[in-house]
Specification:
664 residues; alpha+beta; Beta-Lactamase; Heat Shock Protein 90; 4 domains; 23 strands; elongated
Length: 664
């Protein structure tokens, strides 16, 4: 019996297999059709056998227009031309294709890629994955590719990258230190700004506990966390951070929590603002205000002293005149007068200090300046500190602003006093030196020539090399309390005098400050002395002065010179006299401090009444301030109280030289 199927049976079986295959393809097509990703499949001939709904929506091409098409027709909607795509490469991927398509990666038996595809969507990005299709017998029957629109994801990634770069640019460009930590205070990130503040590189900080860089360590950390826990953030916490070089930086911290996407606290973010320089500026401003207050007080005291000294010197001169007329001499009167004039010179130094830094150099003897100044300087240093002097005789004179030099001396002595221990010793030396070209090779910034040197030496704590190298830096200070000017200001003043300053110091041995001031050949102004006969002048002088003693003395001195004196004790009286006096008024001596109005207000009223009136301003204050205003307005000269008869006569002769009427 023959069991072989006949033709009819074979035909039925083939039809059944074809129907099963068709049903299977329909099932596959239905599965592919409803996949969420855009998907298509090709057979081994490269013809499209599946084109699902999602890809129809993505490309706008219906399945009926694409199914059965070959010759890379499916590439046109994506690339604009016929070309192999991922689905064509999956079955023949090798090293050559790997070099050509570097953006394609192998994922198991599949290939994946991300492509920029503006044809599908402006600015669009697609994620592609292609795999082989196998039949039930394991044979390759085609390939399938899924395409996913990842434009939004790529945009988010781009935004995330840009935001990260933005944050990094903030971190890197911020002058403030930015630090993030975990919940245990371990540093996860630090910006270059923190390195600028502390001197630590980022790698030296990472992984360390943040409080290791706080001046008070965990105490600061507890205070910071307490404020953070109470309010969720902390602003303007003022404290100090330790620097790598051992110094301290004043910082203000603002800190808040970092939270994750679930709102849970992940760590902290702190911003450290360096306010060291700001605080130093505030301290300097406070020092300036104190100095201004002291200067105002010094000016007021000097003014009162000068008025009193005017009474002393004036009466002595009148007494000497009376004794001269009787042919008598008294050396004690000369001693008293010289002492009073020396006191007047000291009040001039007080007034110079009250100028507030104005530069008015005069030729002086440095030795005499020190002899007159040091008694006052001794009052500013510790009573246990000894000042020794070694002043070379007959040294040249120097041209300096005595007020500024007094400040320089005060600043250096204050530093020396703070450096020495109890029973310390400070030595002050003056010398005449010739500076040659060989010397300035190692000491720049000043010219060769004759100099006077002022050396201040102490045997105190001294300075290390780093401190010494920064001594003249602005805002630099040591750990001493620091009174008076900083050394940067001292350096500026000496350079302004065309001088030089050098400092030698060794830690534990002491410090030597040596100042070079150019020597001048011009002798200092000699005090004016009387020569010639008194009482040979004529004219009317309006004396505007409110203090009775000074009125009496000045009037007597003027009358001794031969002038007729008209007295006005107030500004109103002076203006009234100028308006109503019937005769000539040759000159007015105008005090700037009057009980009813200031001298600068009296002057224009005098000029209004008598435009040709000559005026000499008199004051116990210096020439700056109100006196300078009156001089700028047209007054002829200034006379500092206390003045001598010789000075008075000289000033009057100078101003009235064009209209003096001398007796025959």
């Amino acid at each position: 019996m023959n069991d072989k199927p006949d033709y009819e049976q074979l035909e039925k079986r083939v039809r059944a297999l074809e129907q099963a295959l068709k049903t299977s393809e329909q099932h596959l097509s239905q599965i592919i059709n409803f996949l969420p990703d855009a998907t298509f499949a090709i057979d081994t001939q490269g013809k499209v056998i599946a084109w699902n709904l999602a890809i129809q929506k993505m490309t706008g091409i219906k399945a009926r227009d694409m199914l059965g098409k070959g010759n890379y027709e499916y590439a046109i909607p994506f690339y604009g031309d016929r070309r192999p795509v991922l689905v064509d490469l999956v079955g023949r991927w090798d090293e050559e294709f790997q070099k050509k398509y570097r953006y394609v990666k192998k994922d198991g038996d599949s290939l994946v890629s991300e492509t920029y595809d503006p044809l599908v969507k402006p600015g669009g990005y697609l994620w592609n994955k292609a795999s082989l299709l196998h039949g039930s017998d394991g044979q390759i029957i085609g390939a399938i590719e899924s395409i996913r629109d990842i434009t939004e994801r790529k945009q988010m990634e781009t935004e995330r990258v840009n935001y990260k770069r933005f944050l990094e640019s903030i971190y890197n460009s911020s002058i403030d230190g930015i630090v993030s930590t975990d919940l245990h205070g371990t540093v996860l990130f630090s910006s270059p700004g923190l390195c600028e503040i502390t001197g630590y590189e980022g790698k030296e900080v990472l992984g360390k506990k943040a409080w290791l860089f706080y001046h008070k360590g965990k105490e600061d950390a507890r205070n910071i966390m307490k404020g953070l826990q109470e309010k969720g953030k902390l602003h303007n916490y003022d404290f100090k951070m330790k620097k790598k070089d051992g110094g301290l930086a004043d910082v203000i911290l603002s800190i808040s929590y970092i939270r994750n996407e679930q709102g849970e606290i992940d760590g902290t973010l702190g911003i450290f603002k360096d306010v060291t320089e700001k605080k130093l500026l505030e301290e300097e401003l406070q020092q300036v205000r104190k100095t201004e207050s002291i200067a105002t007080l010094a000016g007021g005291v000097a003014h009162e002293f000068n008025n009193i000294l005017m009474g002393i010197t004036g009466n002595i001169e009148l007494l000497q005149l009376e004794m001269d007329e009787k042919g008598k001499k008294n050396k004690r009167l000369d001693l008293i007068k010289n002492s009073a004039l020396r006191m007047a010179n000291l009040t001039k130094q007080l007034l110079a200090y009250a100028k507030g830094g104005k530069y008015r150099p005069k030729v002086i003897s440095l030795n005499m300046f020190l002899e007159e100044t040091l008694p006052f300087q001794k009052q500013t240093i510790a009573p246990t500190t000894t000042l020794e002097t070694d002043l070379q005789k007959n040294i040249p004179h120097v041209k300096v602003d005595s007020g500024q030099m007094q400040m320089v001396l005060s600043a250096i002595l204050a530093n020396a006093d703070e450096a020495v221990n109890e029973d310390g010793r400070i030595k002050i030396t003056t010398r005449s030196e010739k500076v040659d070209k060989e010397f300035i090779k190692n000491h720049r910034d000043f010219a060769p020539g004759p100099y006077v040197t002022l050396t201040i030496e102490d045997h105190g704590k001294g300075m290390d090399e780093e401190t010494l190298s920064r001594l003249f830096d602005p805002f630099f200070t040591t750990k001493f309390q620091g009174r008076g000017l900083g050394m940067a200001a001292v350096y500026g003043i000496i350079r302004n005098h065309q001088g030089a300053i050098f400092v030698d110091s060794k830690q534990g041995e002491g410090t030597v400050v040596r100042i070079y001031l150019p020597a001048v050949e011009v002798a200092p102004e000699e005090p004016k002395t009387l020569s010639g006969k008194l009482g040979t002048r004529t004219g009317n002088i309006l004396l505007i002065e409110d203090e009775a003693m000074l009125i009496e003395i000045t009037q007597t001195l003027l009358e001794r010179l031969g002038y007729r004196v008209i007295v006005a004790a107030t500004g109103k009286d002076a203006v009234h006299t100028a308006r109503t006096f019937s005769g000539d008024i040759d000159l007015a001596l105008l005090d700037i401090k009057l009980p009813d109005m200031e001298g600068e207000k009296v002057y224009p009223l005098l000029m209004e009444a008598r435009p040709d009136l000559k005026v000499i301003v008199c004051s116990g204050y210096s020439m700056d301030g109100p006196a300078r205003e009156i001089l700028n307005a047209g007054a002829q000269d200034f006379m500092q109280k206390p003045f001598t008869l010789a000075t008075l006569r000289s000033k009057l002769d100078k101003v009235l030289k064009n209209n003096l009427r001398r007796r025959s």
